[in-house]
Amino acid sequence: MLSRIADLFIVKLIMTFSEYQKLTARTALYKKVPALKKIGTGIYPVLGLAGEAGEVVEKVKKMLRDDNGVVTKEFKDDLTKELGDALWYVSQTASEFKIDLDKIASGNIEKLFSRKKRGALHGHGDNR
Questions:
Q1: All domains of the chain, ordered by start, with CATH?
Q2: What is the pLDDT of residues 70-114, one digit of tens each?
């Protein structure tokens, strides 16, 4: 019981991406699957991320089709859950390849602001 309370308390705190990454690792049960051990566990979170991205797209599609583009509380709640699932898979993908999530987030912001400063936010290619 105390462990469950402690886990809930941890989740309510403001945390860094690195802290989130460490906490999500405690729920990465796929690492014990024998078939994945044979081929490498790195494939599992990548496939999961693709699946969750599809679920995010489906939520938006259905909001457009069924709710005429109106963003309801229910839609936001559902989308929040799907984005959380996608974030879990991003975190686990980073962990599998030994990349710190804080480094990913800060590197991405640095790249975007560099592009903005150079007027290169629009365009094509990773190395703009």
A1: 2-117 (1.10.287.1080)
A2: 999 999 999 999 999 999 999 999 999 999 999 999 999 999 999
